[in-house]
């Protein structure tokens, strides 16, 4: 199988809107190394394919109507409650961002849109030695959230206020 054929196979597999596939899964399926898949994904991105890497694997960028940045502050023990509150009102947590004093804006793709995604993220975080990005900034961080309509955004902000973690003036 040539590189072009592999890349077409990757695009076809990711064309299902619910598809999230890891580099290891692609490597096994296409009988190449994980690093070859990572290179193929990089080439596809360079050609304009909107493929993002999430903690669960690769997927196409979701097409949501609206997105905005919300600012929150909490400790690591409140991560699951925060993410659950957001997906429960129908928003997608696209990423997490912190404003680091040395490096500037640091961002991690999340693509969390369901309670299953929340549970997987929290499990993965607990099983690694890594810290959440918010640990770099005393819990102060931002999320880009995606939502269908303004009512979802209002519900999301209200849910975060109820948890006392929405950062406001």
From TrEMBL:
Q: Where, by residue number, does Ni(2+) bind?
A: 74, 82, 141, 143
Give the Gene3D superfamilies listed for this entry.
Answer: 3H domain, Winged helix-like DNA-binding domain superfamily/Winged helix DNA-binding domain
Note the Pfam families from the entry.
3H, HTH_11
Q: Name the keywords, alphabetized.
A: Metal-binding, Nickel
Ranges for domain 3H: 70-166
InterPro entries in UniProt:
3H_dom_sf, 3H_domain, HTH_11, NadR, WH-like_DNA-bd_sf, WH_DNA-bd_sf
An MF annotation (GO) of this entry: metal ion binding
Cited SUPFAM superfamilies: Putative transcriptional regulator TM1602, C-terminal domain, Winged helix' DNA-binding domain
Q: Does the keyword Metal-binding apply?
A: yes
Annotated ranges, domain Helix-turn-helix type: 6-59
Q: Is Ligase found in the keyword set?
A: no
Q: What is this protein called?
A: Transcription repressor NadR
